[in-house]
Amino acid sequence: MIEIGRSKRALPVFGFDDIAIVPTRRTRGVEEVNLSWKIDALTFDFPIIAAPMDSVMSPLTAIVFGKLGGLGVLNLEGLWTRYADPEPLLAALADIDDPVAATKEMQRLYAEPVKAELIIGRLAEIRAANVPVAGSLSPKNCVEFRDVVEKAGVDFFVIRGATVSAEHVSKVAEPLNLKDFIYNLDIPVLVGGCATYQSALHLMRTGAAGVLVGFGGGSTARTRDVLGIEVPMASALADVAEARRDYLDESGGRYVHVIADGSLGHSGDIAKAIALGADAVMVGSPLARAAEAPGHGYHWGAEAWHPTLPRGERVRFEALGSLKEILHGPSVTPDGTMNLVGALRQALASTGYSEVKEFQRVGVVVHQ
Amino acid sequence: MIEIGRSKRALPVFGFDDIAIVPTRRTRGVEEVNLSWKIDALTFDFPIIAAPMDSVMSPLTAIVFGKLGGLGVLNLEGLWTRYADPEPLLAALADIDDPVAATKEMQRLYAEPVKAELIIGRLAEIRAANVPVAGSLSPKNCVEFRDVVEKAGVDFFVIRGATVSAEHVSKVAEPLNLKDFIYNLDIPVLVGGCATYQSALHLMRTGAAGVLVGFGGGSTARTRDVLGIEVPMASALADVAEARRDYLDESGGRYVHVIADGSLGHSGDIAKAIALGADAVMVGSPLARAAEAPGHGYHWGAEAWHPTLPRGERVRFEALGSLKEILHGPSVTPDGTMNLVGALRQALASTGYSEVKEFQRVGVVVHQ
Amino acid sequence: MIEIGRSKRALPVFGFDDIAIVPTRRTRGVEEVNLSWKIDALTFDFPIIAAPMDSVMSPLTAIVFGKLGGLGVLNLEGLWTRYADPEPLLAALADIDDPVAATKEMQRLYAEPVKAELIIGRLAEIRAANVPVAGSLSPKNCVEFRDVVEKAGVDFFVIRGATVSAEHVSKVAEPLNLKDFIYNLDIPVLVGGCATYQSALHLMRTGAAGVLVGFGGGSTARTRDVLGIEVPMASALADVAEARRDYLDESGGRYVHVIADGSLGHSGDIAKAIALGADAVMVGSPLARAAEAPGHGYHWGAEAWHPTLPRGERVRFEALGSLKEILHGPSVTPDGTMNLVGALRQALASTGYSEVKEFQRVGVVVHQ
Amino acid sequence: MIEIGRSKRALPVFGFDDIAIVPTRRTRGVEEVNLSWKIDALTFDFPIIAAPMDSVMSPLTAIVFGKLGGLGVLNLEGLWTRYADPEPLLAALADIDDPVAATKEMQRLYAEPVKAELIIGRLAEIRAANVPVAGSLSPKNCVEFRDVVEKAGVDFFVIRGATVSAEHVSKVAEPLNLKDFIYNLDIPVLVGGCATYQSALHLMRTGAAGVLVGFGGGSTARTRDVLGIEVPMASALADVAEARRDYLDESGGRYVHVIADGSLGHSGDIAKAIALGADAVMVGSPLARAAEAPGHGYHWGAEAWHPTLPRGERVRFEALGSLKEILHGPSVTPDGTMNLVGALRQALASTGYSEVKEFQRVGVVVHQ
Hints:
The structure is a homotetramer. Helix content of chain A is about 35%, strand content about 20%. In chain A, the strands form 5 sheets. Chain A has a 9-stranded parallel sheet. Chain A has a two-stranded antiparallel ribbon with strand order 1-2. In chain A, strands 3-19 form a two-stranded antiparallel ribbon. The radius of gyration of chain A is 20 Å and the shape is globular. The two termini of chain A are about 15 Å apart. Chain A has one domain: Alpha-Beta Barrel (TIM Barrel). In chain A, strand 1 (about 1-5) and strand 2 form a beta hairpin. By secondary structure, chain A is of the alpha/beta class. Chain A has helices spanning about 60-65, 85-95, 100-110, 115-130, 140-150, 180-185, 195-205, 225, 235-250, 265-275, 285-290, 325-330, 340-350, 355-360; strands at about 1-5, 10-15, 20, 25-30, 35-40, 40-45, 50, 70, 75, 135, 155-160, 165-170, 190-195, 210-215, 255-260, 280-285, 300, 315, 365. Chain A contains 14 helices and 19 strands.
């Protein structure tokens, strides 16, 4: 602990940019590396989840992402469940350059209510393509749409907000009791963001299959500027990974997956996330560079359209290649934005590891 | 203490940008949060004071700010008390783009003497609007205008300078004896800036109702470049908050309010100031973005027009919306410059707090 | 070790930019300084090796560099051994400004196979000029071209990759057994990059005459962005220098040279590398500014043309002067990019040293 | 000490930008502050010396500076002692914008030999104006021109180089024995730069009246880039101030003045230099902004024209006002580049000090 002044101490914390992975005395051929990720009943080719953001995940891109070997999550309170045909709206939004005008237009577009029948239809569309199905809701909409989602059928139920706690206090609205909710749901749940040991441990005790680690701090979020809240990802992951270990002991063997969610703009960040203890990562911005991305070159999160206190911005990303090229290459740019899977495989190979789980033990340094 | 070299040690210090607030295991609905601030006989809807700077506070904007639930402070040695009609002068000043020319023009404008009758008239105008009345003077003008201000009637008397000490030494001018001055004044006094435990403790012993924490280090001040003096706000607040606690004990229960004054450009900074021990904040630059701001898109402090050693600059700010929108939203920009009150309420809600005083205990981290 | 979070600790590390050399109480005339570097049977005028990169080393520039007193290394799997006349290809590549188009063109150019007869011819050309001869291969090509290189005759065999370990694991390809390879080769070997004490010690045990310290982190490499791997050079060198000392003891007196390879853009970096324990340095980018440089104003490494995961970029450098002026001056620019040898000599003189080996003991400071 | 790697430790060091002066519980009227500086037989109005650089000190500006109350030092191996009329050369040099062309022209101009009769004439011109006279030579020219300078008559003899040690080793040239030189000279000597406790202590033992603290690290020097050598000024001063104290004891009472030389671009830096132990400062760049500055808007030091290894650059500075306004104001810019004396006086007043010597004890913080 560091003394900020006589009445306050603070923990020193670190982000991905502060740390780096260190080579070991061994190297390995890339063909020796196995990136597969097993969670609940499913096994994926690689531990990368596509974030439920309207700028990257439509029913179509969720299907493409699933066919490429990953898990795409559709935002069940985004434009695809508010409008029968959001495509013209997305295209028109992309024509607005002015940030304030774009924020106002997003506030207008997202004021349209979410419709149960659209949730059902979108999920059915993905299911029909024979890929894993996952949809996300914010805590405040979980109770209302739970039955709809359960009936539509998903492989994973994602509960996602900037900060989600196991103990939400409210008088006016019936607060979501996460423990009861998850217990009564016959679908594995991924829940977050959380960013500290304590909050993660409490989320693990709700019965979640995985916790999302983040604080609303990706490339689009401005939580730090607006609320003053931030927990840099490297320290958040290293804390939550310890909660996983302690909960494994406390629960007599239940392994809750730690999923990094945010600040993963480059393939090197994905490798660092695992080096710090993540089992998988949920990425947004790299996928916004795909030719298929529904954002038409813009990327934003749910924080961007809050009706009275937007805490995210719309960011411009140039198209780099197809979703397949973003994930599997070949890459034509050396900045860590293409061939994400190949880069992760190479990171393990260059440091002599063959499995994602083992790679959590690789050494890291901090550049002071 | 860190050794700078063999003959000098220095305390490590931190600013708002170095620290961040950490989520807890609890969250709360925003409707659960109470931001009211009680000081002396008055209770305000939120703990935000408008700084006595000519670019943000005119009699009119002080009234608007008061009606919105806060405390606006008029600079009693600014243009409004030097000129019967400063509005054309402010408009003409805004037409000067060159910084040196603008500094010279400010030096010329502020050379005009302050007039007692204008002090009386301006304060009466605010009083007539039925909002709390507060005016500020620098220490050197306190003796001359004390009676005028007392007669005009104010709810708070603000004594404000870059660095104000309880012990000012001077041979040529009769130095202001703060203790006698405050004892003999029948109005609660807010006094500062101060930036260390010792200087704050001495100011608390003068009988002040509140101390302003700052060193002349806002967005317009260049004290660091000109004088080499700086105390980053996070450390200053955490030190002065300890002085408040010690003085509370020493005085047998007198609670002196700690008011952060400077470096509060974003709503996140306001949340951090309270997290570090402030009871309230005095803001300037966010209000310079209001459509009603008298600065016509420019913002400056008293340091900007010193006749021989200006230590502040005039900064350009684009208009964002009305004073009401700046304070209460809705915000249309995700950078922490609009809906300041809503953002503070959300910061407490996101970390599970319901009262400003409790929020002083929230955990912080330091990003190394 | 610093705690990143509850489950992970990290070593603090430093790059050249973080540290600086400190004057001592003695100074020395530059004429007193001896920069000669003796390795195996050869003695060079100064401890600077030209890096085997196509943008700086052609057979011609290797000869010029050797005549100027240093050791130039030709990349034996670059364009000069893939094409009979690469000069028009290099010129055409320099006409492509767009980075993505340039990467694609490099991927295409380097897809052409390496030809044994070209290796033989290029090395013979250098040998004929009566300068020391050295060629480099990546580990995966060593077995195939070993006999060719041995027959062609070189003074130094350089095995160079971003990360080279003494223990490479692979099922599909017969991995290079460095120890056997070096033992059976009758030529001194320089091998790397390595970046840690352990990996360097293992490389030293293979019988190498020198180890290259680096992690693929020069001005052109983007290993950090793509793979998340980085070991800043100052710490890497200070670690590997300790491995040299320990191996000297373990081996009963075999002195393995430590050669800094990467992040040496300015003459000050060369001085720092030696201050941190290097015996010699391998430089790239300063030579890319030579009028004779084959890159025609562009500079890139082998990482830039990886077929599926490029991890280096092509960087633009303006021509400053002849290779002779870059090495020996006179310099006409005060940024450490000309008169590299003169600058190193002056660095020793200004701190009172007369030999490179002694200068490894000079004091350094770290700017926090 | 911090471990850089297993074989190297480094002292953490700090520059002016890392530290700041802290207010105390006392303030003082500016009229209470006495800035006078007494060294040897002379007393100056303020502790600011003008650096012997051709861009700021001509015989004329040395006179103006002296009449304003300070000590101007003429470079006795600059253009004024190489050419009878350098003014047209300085004007022509200012017309060259290209940095490389300017460096080449400076190398050409300064190749002209220094002439004894010009030294005598320039010093006589200053003497005739009835202001203190001081001239500087680099160590290598001291022996040759000593008698000339002594005969011409100066109040201070300045021996100045990037790094000057009491123990210079050379076989080809007879090295300057500083101790003998100073002992045999009947004029007080200021000598430097030095940057560490040990080197300063040795310089103090030569009998110097003052030591210049610096490493060739002002706004024009690029010693760090070219040689890798740097000692940030805050740590250098705090170390050398301790050497002054130890030498005071060792010598039985000889007080050697510590003069900060370099990195003093803003008045705040001057205040910090004294706070860290300096008795006086030698400034260059702020004076280059004077209308009378001979550099015609450009500023450079002796490092800029080294014939084979220039280690300084020519920097552009806009004219701000007269030398008088730069020193004594009124200032019309809030960045610490005007009214240097007034700013120093205000820094003492704002922290409650009345004498420069006492101000060496003011507290400082380090911004991490």
